[in-house]
Structures are given as C-alpha cells and as structure tokens.
Design a protein that fits this description.
By secondary structure, the protein is mostly helical. The chain has 17 helices and two strands. It has helices spanning 2-32, 39-51, 60-68, 97-123, 127-135, 139-147, 151-166, 170-183, 191-196, 200-221, 223-237, 255-265, 270-295, 301-315, 328-338, 342-363, 375-393; strands spanning 241-242, 245-246. It has a two-stranded antiparallel sheet with strand order 1-2. The two termini are 28 Å apart.
C-alpha cells in the first residue's frame, strides 16, 4: 500500500494531465456545439416562465413544440422536474440556446473548481489530489457537462453546505442546502437528522430558502404549473414510473427497471419481482441503520447520516442517470474525513472511479446479458457497500 502511495505522489501530475484529456474531449468539446440534449429542458422552461406559460412544460407535446422554436433537432421532457427548475437558466434567456448552453458549461466548470477546493479543505489534501478525485468521476462528470445538466452546480452547493456547517456558518449552510432542495429535493431528507442534532438555525434557513424560491416561482409561474407537477409526481413515484411510463429502459439503471425487465424478458412472476424490490431495500436499510447506531454518539453522526441517506436515495431511484451519481462524491468526502485506514480509502476511491468508467467500457462491448448491462447499478452498489462496511469497521473515531 505504501508503494502505491509513493508512486502516486511521484506521478500524480501526470495522472492529472491524463484525466484532464477525456474531460475536454467527452465533456467540454462534445457539448460545446450541441444544444439538442438535456439543456433545452432548462432553457425552454425558463422561456415559458417568462411568457407566463410554465404549465405547458408539463404537457409533453406542448413542451416539445416550444423546444422546436429554439432547436428543431431537440426534444425534451420536463414532467419530472419541479416548477422551480425554470429558474436555473432564467438569467440565460437573453442568449440564444447554444450560447446559453456554452455559458452554462462555463458555470459548471466554475462549480467543478469550487468542488476541488472544498475537497481540498474538508479532506486535508493537496489541490492536485483533490482535482484527481474530482476527475475520477469520469463519465458522470463528462455527461453533466456534455448534456448541459445541473448536478455539478448542485454538488458544489451540497459540499458548500457541509463546509459551512463545519465552519459554524449556519446561515450559509442552510441557504446552500435550501437552494439545492428547491430544485432537487434531496436536502429535505436531511431535516430529521439536523433536528436530532439540534441544528435548528440551519434547518430554519434551509426551509426558508426552499419556501422563498417556491413562492417566487408560484407567483410568477402560476398555480397550474404546480398542480400539474403534483399530479405527475404522485403518479410516478407512488407507482414506480418514470416520466409517466413504467420504468423499462436500461438507461435508468435502477433496481426498479432491472426487476421490471426480469418480469418482461425472463417471465418472472409478479410476486417474485416485488419480493426482489423489497429485499433490495431491506438490505440497504439494515446496513444504514447499523451504521447510524454505531455512530449515534460520535461527532461524525451528522455527516454519516446525511451522506448515507444520499446513497440510499440514489440506490432507491426509479430512474437513475450517470450524472446523478456525482452526489456519491459527498459520501466519498465524508469517508476520507473519517476513515484512517489507507486500504479502505483507496478501495473506496477505486469503487468511485468504477462508477465513472466501467459502465461506459461495458456498453462498448454490446453484451446481450441483462445483469452485465446494469453495470452502473452494480458499481453504485459496490461503492455503497464499501462505504457502509468501511465506516462500520472503523474502530476508533472521535466521540
């Protein structure tokens, strides 16, 4: 192990350069001249908000007609996003679609640099190592940039929230997480743990920021948009659907899809498919409850709770995407802070890198195997397993 560390320290600048090449090729270059992927969802919804027609974003046909006005080669799907999503690119609406996306890529790169510095600070490592860890995100990172997604910005705010908490800056912490919660509900699941640890000020500003952003959107976008969203949200999440349809596409890489395909392709009976879904969730919940019990009286309980619930939500998603798994970096940061054993640290780093690279490599093989084709889900599971077991086996930590 020491040999590996010595070699890494000797060649880490070369490794950094090697990892930067695919970032520019598959991330920045691939997305710089294309605006027909995910970004139109954000840009066109902002245009509809300005025009007072945000509710149209929840009608697939009307939304695609609106997108066609800006790029006839693009299509989109907004039904799973809260109305506040339209605010994300509101400041970019004076620009045309392609230039707006280019600006967003630059914003995402700034967020990436911020993440590197937050990793450096929280994990007490040098800038080069922090940058290498960030680049180990692989295609989770590249796809966010190439598609014009928002998860790098969300991740930067997530890490900023924890950094601010560690610096006793409750208002900044609450506002950072409140901003994320307004667009991606994840930080709302932090609230029980924040209250348990008497972080009332953070909780207050998290909820206040969340409500102000939604109130602003409600006033500007109207109640019809919210009514449409609530109907879609409940119909999908209560019935295991994605975008109003039963989850069957392998691109979603979730246990929900895997089980549904077992029923469709391998004729598994419904009871066995439902049992598989239940067992999947019970196993992970048991692991996380054991971890919470071990760390309950530790100063690390809050960060362990927040990062483990983040992983649980990723594991339980009906429809996952590669860029969603950038949130695993939040868990990785906590692990590197808490765990002292170098073996476990390196193992989790390799597990994190597997999420970013192995699924793409396997997809190039075009294998006709259902299990293998869900490699992103298994890589996430491997990462989560190492996270839970490694933290549980940590024998000494500060009380």
């Amino acid at each position: 192990m020491n040999y590996i560390i010595i070699k890494y320290n000797k060649y880490k600048l070369i490794l950094l350069f090697i990892l930067l090449l695919p970032l520019f090729w598959f991330g920045i270059k691939a997305g710089w001249n294309k605006a027909n992927t995910d970004f139109p969802n954000y840009y066109v919804s902002a245009q509809l908000l300005i025009k007072g027609h945000l509710a149209d974003a929840y009608n697939v046909n009307k939304f695609n007609t609106a997108i066609d006005e800006y790029n006839s080669e693009a299509s989109g799907l907004f039904v799973m996003y809260p109305p506040t999503t339209a605010l994300l690119t509101l400041g970019l609406t004076p620009f045309n679609l392609l230039n707006a996306k280019r600006i967003w890529i630059l914003i995402s790169l700034i967020a990436t640099v911020a993440i590197v510095f937050l990793l450096k600070s929280r994990c007490n490592i040098d800038k080069t190592s922090a940058a290498v860890i960030m680049l180990l995100s692989g295609f989770s990172l590249y796809n966010d940039l190439m598609l014009g997604q928002v998860y790098l910005v969300m991740l930067a705010l997530m890490l900023l929230g924890w950094h601010a908490l560690e610096q006793n800056k409750a208002i900044l912490s609450g506002m950072s997480w409140g901003l994320v919660a307004a667009f991606k509900f994840l930080p709302l699941f932090f609230i029980p743990f924040l209250l348990l640890k008497k972080q009332y000020k953070i909780t207050f500003f998290l909820l206040l920021t969340f409500m102000i952003i939604h109130l602003f959107t409600l006033i500007i976008g109207g109640t019809d948009a919210y009514n449409s969203f609530f109907q879609v949200f409940t119909a999908n999440y209560l019935h295991g659907k994605v975008a109003n349809q039963t989850a069957l596409s392998m691109q979603y890489q979730s246990m929900e899809v895997f089980a549904n395909l077992l029923s469709q392709l391998s004729q598994w009976p419904n009871w066995s498919v439902n049992l598989l879904k239940i067992i999947w969730k019970v196993i992970w919940l048991c692991l996380v409850f054991l971890l919470w019990r071990k760390y309950f009286n530790s100063k690390y309980f809050l960060i362990v709770s927040l990062t483990s619930i983040t992983l649980i939500l990723l594991l339980f998603e009906n429809g996952s995407a590669s860029y969603h798994l950038l949130f695993c970096l939040f868990a990785l940061m906590a692990f590197l802070q808490i765990v002292k054993d170098k073996y476990w640290k390196i193992t989790l780093l390799l597990a994190y890198a597997s999420i970013g690279f192995i699924p793409v490599l396997i997809s190039l093989l075009h294998l006709d195997n259902l299990f293998v084709n869900f490699s992103r889900l298994w890589c996430l599971s491997f990462f989560a397993g190492i996270f839970f077991i490694g933290l549980y086996k940590q024998s000494k930590f500060a009380k």
